[in-house]
Input
Amino acid sequence: MTAPALAATAGLPPTRAARLRWTLADGLTLIGRELSRIRQEPGELIAALVFPAVMVVLFGYVFGSAISVPGGGNYREYLMPGLFAMVTFTGTMAVTMRVAADASRGVMDRFRSMPTARSAVPFGHTGAEVLNGLLGMVIMAAAGLIVGWRAHNGVWPTVEAFALLALMRYALSWAGCYLGLLVKNEQTADQLVPLVFPVTMLSNSFVPTGGMPRALQAVADWNPVSALTAACRDLFGNPGAPTGDAAWPLAHPVAATTGWAVLLLAVFVPLSVRTYRRRGR
Output
């Protein structure tokens, strides 16, 4: 039997292009389903939108009086790229919890019983997470403008910085999707949430890494959170640019962040799709 004939027998579109269109159409439908579910749970939506603004005010004014910026400058301008990076990484757990909830409640099994593209379900979860993340970034940027943060390098570097944040959030959402498929229930996923904060704190998000012990400084300098933070500081024109002897990810933060995002996608997209398919066997 030829490949098109086998696909027709299995109920699949006969060509690769048709299967791609089928996957994208189903994925967009499931993105709409995720966004609709979030709108029906206003408490979760309000918390997701208020949290970034609270972080700006809390860290900006609590830490701002105690920490000096390397080379001088406004601490809140130094802080904002770090907060953007922190929220990008902590958003991973939101995907994990939603995927784990669908798996534990049998929603995944119902999707498998329908004529739906297998990769469309993870695509729906991750796509919805990026849209939610963009809304959160808008709220955080508005709060930052209120407390004195500015992007000084013009429109296109600013757009590039937000595009880099969106790319990293999308890549991390696939990692969260895979983790949600592994843990299988909301309770376990909820217990994993505190593990994200040490990753975001052990970085240059809130304080310079130069004052850390040498071993911790090496970890912080190669932390993808630090690369994303440094890239945003560079593109926004905010204080805290790395010195000439900085580690490679901090000296080339845009390239390092792009590399981390591509690596995460290359690893977790196939893992997520494969794990979703295997759970139905």
User: Anything to note?
Assistant: The mean pLDDT is 80. Residues 17-279 form one domain. Residues 8 and 130 are 34 Å apart (CA to CA).
